[in-house]
Write a structure and sequence with these properties.
The structure is a homodimer of 211-residue chains.
Chain A (H helix, E strand, L loop, with lengths): L1 H9 L11 H16 L6 H7 L4 H7 L5 H4 L2 H14 L6 H17 L2 H12 L2 H24 L6 H21 L5 H29 L1
Chain lengths: 211, 211
């Protein structure tokens, strides 16, 4: 019983009676401090103090300082998997992968200030950039698996998911520097990729006709 | 003078008078041990012993155990940058990025047994997989910079380089499981990507015509 209630507290998302939205307050305080003074320079004590909470409460919600920046990855991946599952029968693998990244984009777009602040913090720190890269690869791998579950064969499934990653990375950088909608920018960037590789395709077709 | 001769020894690639190809012998011994008993389970002492050399010699050539697996990255990147610089004026950004990864592929193809053994070692270890991912991103970033140097604007440069990464990753996995030529498989995979995204493009054109 003890273990069970501890688990409930740890996963209550800060909605408990004594700490209304403790998790959200901690995350906001952490992000502001990371942005203002750097990730490495910020201590958990400072984060807790800024949020008006204790270090113990911080560690009830997050394993460490870094976790604050990456704890949304699971939710994003789940949204992507739903998008893959919900894509129409007629969609091509690349269109399905694109829909998955568009779903992630739509979620990010709901709190653009947070996403931009988070991006600034991560961009400023080599270790965090590496972690972000690994999380993105992990998402691509989940999309690949979901495509395979839909019956997409290899290497088509991996190629579609990796094309999605390529497009998402470029689209995200464009979005950070713009005032546009991330989902729309992802779609547009996928179109740019299609235009770019089309030349390769036409070249190859021309070569095939000759040979 | 002292510093200079120390540098010469450290960078002599094992071609010194006292240790003919020490570097190559150490790298071979390390790879064989990593493959046979696992990366984490292998000590520098074992590597040195298998190569008939001392630990001190190992550390003259490699900073640590991991370095043995990744010390070829600089040379690969340099080959890729030469390929970008040498691509004809008429080549599209994606074709140039593809040429860069094909050049890396040609180098890897020169020692396929080593590449396949190295891949098996890296695939079996989460930390090494992350390191490989980061090295690949670093190569993509070098290709992006080289494309920009050729006057390719953003986001075209990044998109071309990232498409190259997507293709290379898929091509490499296909190559490991095949007896084919890596350069040829990279070219073929780029064609597959072109075919896959072509649908997206034709859809969009159809939509543009309607609206």
């Amino acid at each position: 019983m003890r273990l069970m209630s501890a688990t409930v507290i740890a996963y209550d998302g800060g909605m408990g009676r004594w700490e209304p939205d403790a998790r959200g307050r901690l995350a906001k305080a952490a992000l502001e401090l990371y942005a203002a003074q750097g990730f490495d320079q910020t201590t958990v004590a400072e984060i807790a103090s800024r949020a008006g909470l204790t270090e113990r409460t911080f560690f009830r919600h997050f394993a460490d300082k870094r976790e604050v920046l990456f704890d949304g990855s699971d939710a994003l991946r789940d949204l992507m998997l739903v998008a893959v599952a919900d894509a129409p029968e007629s969609a091509t693998p690349v269109q399905i992968a694109s829909a998955a990244f568009e779903a992630a984009g739509a979620a990010i777009q709901q709190n653009p200030e947070r996403a931009r602040l988070r991006n600034a913090v991560i961009s400023a720190n080599a270790e965090l950039r590496e972690r972000e890269l690994i999380k993105l690869a992990w998402m691509a791998s989940a999309v690949t698996d979901a495509l395979r579950d839909r019956g997409v064969p290899e290497p088509t499934a991996t190629l579609a998911a990796e094309a999605g990653v390529a497009v998402f990375k470029v689209a995200f950088v464009r979005w950070v520097a713009s005032t546009g909608d991330l989902t729309e920018i992802i779609r547009e960037t996928m179109g740019m990729l299609a235009d770019q590789v089309a030349y390769t395709r036409e070249d190859r077709k021309a070569r095939d006709r000759v040979s």
